[in-house]
Amino acid sequence: MKAAPLDLAVLRARLAAQPGRPFWRSLEEAADTEEFRAYLAAEFPACSLPAPAPDRRRFLQLMAASLAMSGLAACGRGGGNSRIVPNVRESQRLVPGLPTYYASAALLDGFANGIQVTTFDGRPVKVEGNEAHPWSRGGTDVFAQASVLQLYDPDRSQTVRRLGRISDWQTFGGVMAGHVAAIRAEHGRGLRLLTGPVTSPSLAAQIEALRTDFPEMHWHVLETVPRAAVRDAATTAFGRPLESIPRFDRAEVVVALDADFLDQGPQQVGLARRWSDARRASLATGRLLVLHAAAPSPTLTSAKADFPVVASSRGMAALADGLLADIAAGSSAAPGTDPASQWRARAAAALHAARGRGIVVAGAAQPAAVHLAAHRINAALGNTGTTVLHLTPATAPAEPIESLVAAMAAGAVSAVLMFDTNPVYTAPADLDFSAALARVPLKIHAGLHVDETANAADWHLPLSHPLEAWGDARAFDGTISMQQPTIMPLYDTRSAGELLSVIFEPASRSGLAILQDFWRGSRSAAAFFPGWDQSLRDGFIPGSAFPAETVRTPPAAAASALARTTGDLDLLIRPDPSVWDGSFANVGWLQELPKPLTKMTWDNLVAISPRTAERLHLDNGEIVEIVAGPRRTQGPVWITPGQADDAATITLGYGRGSAGSVADGVGFDAYALRTAASPWISSGVVLRRHGGRTPLATTQLHSTMEGHDFVRIQPLGAPPVGDNTAFTQPSFYPRLQTDGRSWGMVIDTDACIGCNACVVACQSENNIPVVGREQMLAARGMHWLRVDRYYGGPLDDPQTHFMPVPCMMCEQAPCEVACPVEATVHDHEGLNLMVYNRCVGTRACSGYCPYKVRRFNFHDYSAGAEPSLQAQRNPDVTVRAGGVMEKCTYCVQRIAAARVEADQAGRPIRDGEVRTACQQACPTRAITFGDLADRGSAVAHAFADPRNYALLGELNTRPHTTYLATLAPAAPPKPEG
Amino acid sequence: MAPPPLFGIAASFDNAEALLAATEAACRARLGRVDAYTPVPVPGLTAALGLARPPLPVTTLIGVLIGGFGFFGMAAYATIADYPLNVGGRPLFSWPAYVIPSVSIGALWGAVAMALTLVVLNRLPQLNHPMFHVPGFERATQDRFFLSIEASGEHFDADAARRLLLHLPTPPLSIDAVPR
Amino acid sequence: MPSEIVRPTQRFVPPGQDYDAIGEQVAQATLRRPTMRNPVQRRWLLAFVASLALVTLLIVCIGWLFYRGVGIWGNNIPVTWALDIVAYDWWMGIATGALLVSAVLLLLDQTWRSALNRIAESTALYAAIAAAIYPIIHLGRPWFFYWNLPYPNSLWLWPQFRSPLVWDAMAILSYLAITILFWSVAMLPDLGALRDRADGVWRRRAYGVAALGWRGSAVHWARWQQAMRVLALLCVLVVVSLQSGAAVMFSGSLEPGWHDTLLPAFYLIDAAFSGVAVIGLGVAVARGLLPLSGLITDEHVDIVGRLLIAVGLLATYCYAADFLFTAYGGDAFERATAVRRLVGPYAWSFWLIVACALVPIHLLWFRRLRRSGVVLGTVGLLVLIGMWCDRFMVIVVTLQHDFLPSSSRAYGTTFWAVATFAGSIGLFGLMWLLFVRYLPAVSITELRLLAREDAEAAELG
Fold first, then answer.
1. Cα distance between residue A140 and residue A471, in whole Å
2. Which ipTM value was assigned to this complex?
3. Residue whose C-alpha is closest to residue C142's, from C211, C89, C214, C69
4. Is A880 on the interface with C (CB under 8 A)?
C-alpha cells in the first residue's frame, strides 16, 4: 500500500480552507483522502494485516466512534450537495438538545414499515411508528425498534476488505473496472447477482437497467423466509402470483390455517392493526370478529384465537381439504371426537353462517396445497374480492437460488455479486452453497457485517444501514415508502444502489442522485420537487399501494396431493420472533428480548409438545440431537404447550459463526437442517438425547394464573367482569388531591398480541442496558416493561393470554413507604417517581412491590458500553448508575417535554399529546395513556369501560395502570386454569 | 514541722457487720463526713450513712421524654412543614409511623442522661483519691471493708475519731491517718 | 421480690467460695497469659486463630463487594433481600434476645443470673456489632448510608420517617449505645477488682483507667445499683421497639407471609428464643474455655435449660398460630405462601426450623441431660441454626414467589454471600474470645452478692 506519510500541516490547511462551520464534515472528507488511509496504514500496521479480530476491530471502532461521536450533524455529505427534508442546511428547527424527526422506512426482508426517526443533534436515538403511513399506521415491530441499535453496532463492517485485508473503495473501483469491461464484452455471461428480497422500485429499476447492459446476467433472490408457496398457490388458482390481503373490517369470521398475520414478519404491523381495529369495531356492533386458528406450532395468531386448536403438522393439508369439503357439501360431516375435527366443524359452520363475510387465510409456512384450499374456500363462500383481496407481490420477481448454485457448481459463473444477503449462512444446507461458491473466480459480497459470506468472498464491501442511506421500498400492500438518511454514514459505506453505481456505472452517483433520477424520470424540476419534498416529509407516496386484482375462480381440482411424510416426527423450521433469520442476531436488545411464547432469551430451542416430551423422556433444557436425513445438529429441548405431538419446531438465526461479539456462539444453526425443496418442514426427523443440559435464561417460569384472574375474560353478552373498584375501596387515608392532572394507562389485553414491540421501544427510549446471558440466568433482566404470558385450559390445547406489565403507578404505593431516603415518591400528577441520584439501593421498594416491576442495577450494567453504542442513548433519560433501583416512569421525559411546550403556549396538555414509547410502538394500539382527571380523555373513557379492572386491585394500591378484559365469544371458552 | 493536712481517718474491717456497726457509731459522733468502701454493696449501709435515694430515675425519665418527644416532633416537622412529600398517599402527619423510632431514640437519650448523671454525681473518673494511700486499700475491692471519717467540717478531731474507732465492739483491723 | 423458679436451698455457689476465692478465680481466668501447654488455653488460641482467619475473609469480601457491587451475592429480582438481611435479622435476634433475658432477670431480682449476665450482655453487644455491618454493606451504594440518618442531609432531604428501614436504623443506633452503657457500667466494679489484683504495672494502669478510679464507695454502690436497674428497664424498652421495628420491616408491606399484625410478637419471642439459646451456648463454651466450672455451676446450666424449654414452647405456639391464622384467614395468596413454606422449593428451611429448634429443646425435659453443659450447648447451637432458617424462610420464600406467578424466580446463593456471613461469625467470635480473655467473663460483684445470699439461704434451710 502507499506509505506516503501524511503531511498533517497540509491536512490542517485543508481543514482550515473549508468554508465556514462544518469542521467535522471536513474531517470526514479528510478521512476520505488517500493520504489519510495511507497514514492509518503507516501508523497502525495492525489494521492492514489480517490481525486477530479484536485488535483491528477495536481500533476501527475507536476511529469510527471518534467520527460518530463528534456530532456528525445531519448535514449532507460530499460538500452538502444533498438535502434531507425537512432539515435544510441551517435549519431553525435544528435546536441543539431538541429532537428532530425524520420520516423514513424500516426494512424487514426488503419490505417497508413507515417509521419516524427521532434524532438529537444529528444522532438517531429512537424509532417511532409513522402515524400517517397507510400500511403501518404508526405501529412498529421489534425489528424496526431495534434497527437504531443495529445502526450503532460496533461490530458493523467498516471498511472494504480484499481477501480479509483492509482495502478501500478506490482500489476496489480500480480493480472492478477491468472485470466489468471483460464482463460487458461477454454481454454479462457468467455474471450473477444474488440479493435478498427486493421491493425497492429504484433498485429494481437499476437491476433492470443492468440487464440491458448485460443481457446474459442473471439475478437470483435468496428468501430466508420464503413466500414461494403463496405465489405458487396463487399461480395455480388465479394464473399469476398474488399476495392475499384479508379485509378484517368486512369480516365476521376468520379461519386461520397456521396463519401468521399477527406474527413477526413484514405483514405483521399492518395486518395486526387492521385485525384489532376490526375486532374493536365488531364489538361496537354487538358481535365479535371471531378467530378460529389451527396450528401445528403455537404462533401469536393461534395464541390470540378464540377457538385455537393444535393441528397435526402433516394433517394441515387434510384439515384444509376437509374444511373445503365441508363448505362444498354445504354442511359439515358429523364431527369426530378429536379436537381438530370438532374445530373444523365449528369453523365450517361459522363460515357458512357468514357467507361473504368470512376469511380463510393460510400462513407462509404452509405448503401451496393449503393456500390453494384456502383460495377455493374463499371463492366458494364468495369471500374472494370482498373480504379477501389479492394484490401483486411487492417483491420484484427474480430467479431462485437453486439455479445459481447449479450454475456455480457447473463452473458457469465467472463473477457473483451478493448484497443484502448472507447465503453461506442462510442458504439451504442441502445446496452446499459454499462449496459451489468456491468455484467462482470473482466473489463480491456487500453487507452490514463481515459475516460468513464476507469471509468466503474475495471482496467484502461495507453496506450502509437503512438509517444512514437513501432509498425506497414497498410495504406489504405495495405502498412505496421513502427512506432518507437520518445521519451521515458512520463509516465509509455505500447503499445497495450506490454499490451498483460504483461497480457498473462510468460515473458513480450518490444515493440521492440515484433515487431522484429514478423518481424524477423526465419531469422538470418544478414539476418534480414539490411532490418529492412532500413524499420525503410523509415518508411515503400516497396512493401507491397496489390495487386489488380481480381474479378468476380457482379451478376446482381434486384434493391436492398430500405431502408424503415418513417417520412420526416432523421438524418445523420457523423464523425467530426475536432475531428473525439471523440478520438481527448481533442486536443485544433482540437477543435479550423474551420470545413472545417461550419467554426465552439468548437461545433458540427445540420446541416439543408435552406428550412428545413424555414419550421421549425429555425435560426442559436437555440437549437433543436432531437427525434429519443426512443432516444433524444439537439444541436444547423446550416443552411447549400448544405444540403438535408430531412436530418439533426450531427457529432460524442462531448458531452464528461470524456475526459479531453479541451473536457469536449463541444457540444452534437451524439452517443446517434446511432443504431447498422443503424449507419449512422436513419429515421423518429423529430426536436423540445427546446428553447434558444447558441452563436456559427464560424470564417466566410459572405460566398458570394459579386460580386467580390476573387476565380476565369477558364473554360477549355476559355480565361485565371488570370492576372499577381500583379507587373506590375504603382506606384509612384521605385521597390526596392532584393539582389537575392524573396520568393513567389502560391496557387492552384483548388487543395485545404479545409481539414485544413495546418492550424494545421501552428499552430504546429509556436507555435500558443489556445485561447478558449470565445475568438473565440470575434473574437480573432490566426490562422496565415485561409481557406476562399465561396459559389456561388443558396442557395440550391451551388458551394463551398476554399481559404487558409496566409500573402500576399506585396511588398508595407500597414501594414509596418502604424507601428510607425518599428516593421514590409521588408527584402532584399521580406519577410514582424514581429519584435515581437519591437511591441508596436498599431494594426494599422491590420487595414491597406486589407487581415486581422494579429493576435493580446489580452490577453497573451501563458502564463500559462501546462509544458507538453510547451514541444511541436518549439524552433526555438518565443513564442509571450501579446499585440503583429503576423502573417504568410512564416516559416522564415525554410528559415533561409536553408540559414545557404546553406551558410556553399557555394551554393545557392536549389529550394524546403525550404518548409513551410503548403506546407509540404498539401495532394494535392496545395501550391508552393520558390524563385520568380529564373526563374527556381517551384514557378516561377506557377507564370507564365495563371491561376495565385493576391488577391485584384488592390490595388497594389504587393502580393508575389498569386493564381491559380479554374478549371471548358468547360461547364461554375453555375454563381458565 | 507541722503534720501534713489530713484527708481523714480510715479503718478497715474484715466483715460487713463490723463495718455497719462502725459506720452507725461514726455517723452518730458527727465528727465529719463518713464514707464506707466495700467489695460489694452492703445492705443497710446507705441507711446507716443516711444517704438520700439517688436521683437517677428522674434524670433518666427527663432524658427519655426529651429524646422521644423531640424525635417525634422532628419527624412531624420534617414531613409536614420542612419538606412535605406525598409518600404512598399517606397523610403528611403519619403519626403512627413516628412512634416506634421515637421510642428507640427516647430510650437512647434516657440512657445517655443516666450515664452522665452517674458519672457527674460520682465525680468519676477520678484515678487518684486519698483513700488509695491507705495501706492495703486494694483489698477494698476484694474482701476488706473500709471506713473513712473525713476531715470535713469544724467538728473534726482526729484523736476523737481514733478513740471512737478503737472503742468499737469489734475493733478495726487497722486505723490509719489518711493524708490529703 | 425473691426468686420464684429457684428453690431456696439450691446453691449456685459451691461451698467455700468466699469473696476472695471468687475474685481469684475470675482474675485467674483473665489475667493468665495464654500458652499452648495448658489444654484450656490451647483451645482458646486455636479458636482465636480461626476467628482471625474468618475476619480476614470478611475484609476481603467487603472489599470485593464495594468494588463489584451487591451483584456478587445471589440476590436478584424478585429476591432482592437474601442472606444479607437474613444474617442481619438473625444476629439482631441473638443480640436482643440475650440482652432481653439478662435485663429481665435483673429486674426480677434473679440473682443467680450473676454468673451468666456478663456473658449474656457481651454476647448481646458483639452480636449487635456483627449485625450492624449488614445494613450498610447490603446497600447498592453503601457510601450514601448516612442518608438514613435523621438530619436533613443531601439537598436538605430528611430520611423518610414512614419507612420501617429508618425505624430500624434508629433502633440499632439506640440499641448499640444502650448495650454498651449497660455492659460497661456493670463492669466498673469488676475492673476495679481486677486493677487491684493485676500484677504488672501496665495491666494495673490499663484496668485502673478502665475502672475510672472505682473505689467501692458506699455512695457509688447505691447509685450503681440504681443505674443498673434503670438501664435494664431501658434495655427492655429498646429491645421491644427494635424487634417491633424489624418485624414491621416485613409486616409493613403487602407481601403474603409478611403482611401480618402478629409478626412483631412472633419476632420478640423468636428473639428471646435465640437469646436463651445463645446464652446456653455461651455458658457451655465459657465452661470449656475457662476454669470457671466452679462459678458457672450445673445449677446455672439447669436453669438455662428450663428457660430454653419455656421460650421454645412459646415459639412453637407462634408457628402453630401463624399457620392456623393463615389457614382460616381467607387470603389465597397468604395460604399459597404458607403451603410453599411447607412443600415449596425452600421447604427445607421450615423443616430445619422444626428439626433444629422446635424438637431438640424437648431433650431438656430430662434432668440429666439438662444439667449437662455439652447437651445445653449443642441444643443451643441447633436452636440458633433453626432461627437462621426461620429468617431465611420468612424472607426468601415470600420474595421468590409473591403475587404474580410470572415474576416468580428461584434464588441461589453465591460463595461471596456465604463467605460474608462466615466472616461476620468470625468477627463475633474474635470479639467474644478477646472478651473472655481480658475482661471479667463473670461478674465478680454479683457473684459475691450471690454467694452471700446463698450463705444466708443455707442458714435458713
1. 19
2. 0.90
3. C69
4. no
Asked if residue A254 lies in contact with residue A359, where contact means CB atoms within 8 angstroms, the answer is yes
- Produce one character per residue of A592-614: b if its CB has 16 or more CB atoms within 10 Å, e if not: bbbbbbbbbbbbbbbbbbbebbe
Q: How far is CA A889 from CA A741, A815, A820, A920, B21, in A?
A: 16, 14, 20, 15, 82
Residue A540 φ/ψ, nearest 5 degrees = -160, 165
Do residues C268 and C97 make contact, with C-beta atoms less than 8 angstroms apart? no
Query: Is A139 in contact with A266 (CB distance < 8 Å)?
Result: no
Q: What is the residue type of A876?
A: D
Joined together, the cell numbers standing for residue A242 give 398474488
Query: What are the Cα distances from residue A504, in Å, to A183, A205, A209, A497, A876?
Result: 10, 14, 10, 11, 45
Q: Which amino acid is at A674?
A: R
Q: Are strands A290-295 and A253-257 parallel, antiparallel or unpaired?
A: parallel
Q: Are A191 and A214 in contact (CB under 8 A)?
A: yes
| Cα–Cα distance for residue pair C118/C436, rounded to 1 Å | 10
Q: Supply the pLDDT for residue A21.
A: 33
> Do residues C187 and C439 lie in contact, with contact meaning Cβ atoms separated by under 8 Å?
yes
Each residue's pLDDT tens digit, A452-492: 999 999 999 999 999 999 999 999 999 999 999 999 999 99
Pairs across A and C, CB distance < 8 A: 161
Cell 414539476 -> residue: A527
> Rounded to whole angstroms, how far apart are CA atoms C237 and A906?
58
* CA A317/CA A233 separation, integer angstroms: 13
pLDDT tens for each residue of A767-821: 999 999 999 999 999 999 999 999 988 888 889 999 999 999 999 999 999 999 9
- Among C34, C3, C26, C13, residue whose Cα is nearest residue C189: C26
pLDDT tens track for A397-434: 999 999 999 999 999 999 999 999 999 999 999 999 99
Which A residues, 384 through 413, put their C-beta within 8 Å of a C-beta on chain C?
A: none
Q: Are A608 and A298 in contact (CB under 8 A)?
A: no
On whether the CB atoms of residues A391 and A242 are closer than 8 A, the answer is yes
The chains found to touch A (3+ Cβ pairs under 8 angstroms) are B, C
> Which chains are adjacent to chain B, needing at least 3 Cβ pairs under 8 Å?
A, C
For A890-933, write each residue's pLDDT tens digit.
999 999 999 999 999 999 999 999 999 999 999 999 999 999 99
- Which residue blocks in C156-217 are alpha helix, DSSP H? 164-197, 201-210
CB contact under 8 A, A822 and B91: no
**Buried residues in A309-324 as b, exposed as e (16+ CB within 10 A):** bbbbbbbbbbbbbbbb
* Confidence category of residue A3, pLDDT binned at 50, 70, 90: very low
pLDDT for residue A77 is more than 50? no
CA distance A744 to chain C (A): 21
Letter for the amino acid at A625? Answer: E
CA distance C225 to A380: 105
Task: Return d(Cα A938, Cα A921) in angstroms, integer.
Answer: 17
- Answer whether C237 touches B (CB < 8 Å): yes
Distance from CA of residue A742 to its chain's centroid? 33
- A617 sits in the region (left: phi over 0; alpha: psi -120 to 50; else beta) called left
**Euclidean distance between CA atoms A251 and A373, whole angstroms:** 19
Cβ burial A548-578 (10 Å sphere, 16+ → b, else e): beebeebeeeeebeeeebeeebbbbbbbbbb
* Mean pLDDT, residues A312-337 taken together: 82
Angle at C120 between CA C114 and CA C121, to 5 degrees: 95
How near does any CA of chain B get to the CA of C72, in Å?
31
